[in-house]
Design goal:
It is a single chain. The protein is an alpha/beta fold. The protein contains ten helices and five strands. It has a five-stranded mixed sheet with strand order 3-2-1-4-5. Strand 2 and strand 3 form a beta hairpin. Helix 1 packs across helix 2, helix 4 packs across helix 6 and helix 5 crosses helix 6. The relative contact order is 0.10.
Length: 232
């Protein structure tokens, strides 16, 4: 590593001055030692490291630079390349290669404490006799290379059809609201009657926002239903 450092700066400062500064900093290396290292043939370990570095770069690049040492090591092992995991970690660190660390799963339900809580009218009885009697709204998420993406759905329990949906990179109220408005528009333009509709969701702030409540069909505003337990 010291030899590499001298190589990188010797054109600007010269070998002897660099060695003097390094000695003052407590790193003892004489110019003769540097020149001896440059003329000495590379060791078997250095040759092996160079080969591994090339293979590690290839695996890391082919997997969109998301693999860390553990997965790179597993892929090398799968390809029949014998190497210790600590060696992979050392070489990746020296090359500045690192994987993408998985973050904790996002929390999609944050309970609202400032608004009136609708009763649970469903009580896990997700059975209906006709379409548009019970809609269930929920938000889920999926990990992408760009980060978390959230998906809001409104599902008709009878047909199991997704009547409304929306995607977003944030848990804004508009995410759930857009999915609801799509469902209402789709069903009303299909000539469906929403007068007996019950809307069921968790007690997250998105579903209890005033804008969301006002967007519900008038008959569904009163028979709103919210799960008794928060589903995170």
């Amino acid at each position: 590593m010291i030899v590499d450092y001298i190589d990188a700066h010797k054109t600007d400062y010269g070998v002897e001055p660099i060695c003097r500064v390094l000695a003052q900093a407590g790193v003892q290396i004489a110019p003769s030692t540097y020149y001896a290292a440059k003329t000495r043939p590379p060791s078997a370990r250095a040759i092996r490291d160079a080969e591994l570095v090339e293979q590690i770069h290839q695996i890391h690049g082919e997997n969109y630079a998301v693999y860390g040492a553990r997965k790179v090591y597993a892929e090398l092992k799968r390809q029949g390349i014998r190497v210790a995991r600590c060696t992979v970690e050392r070489l990746m660190c020296a090359e500045g290669l690192r994987g993408i660390t998985r973050s904790k799963n996002p929390r999609t339900t944050i309970a609202s404490v400032d608004t009136e809580r609708p009763a649970d009218l469903v009580n896990r009885g997700f059975i209906t006799s006709a379409p548009d009697q019970l809609w269930v709204a929920d938000i889920t998420y999926v990990r992408t290379f760009a980060g978390w993406t959230y998906a809001a759905f409104v599902i008709d329990v009878f047909s199991r059809r997704i009547v409304g949906w929306q995607l977003s990179t944030s848990l804004r109220t508009d995410l759930a609201l857009d999915a609801l408005e799509m469902g209402i528009w789709t069903r009303e333009h299909a000539g469906q009657n929403l007068s007996q509709l019950i809307h069921h969701s968790d007690r997250g702030v998105q579903y209890r926002a005033v804008r969301y409540t006002n967007a519900l069909p008038m008959p569904a505003r009163s028979p709103r239903s919210a799960a008794a337990a928060i589903a995170c």
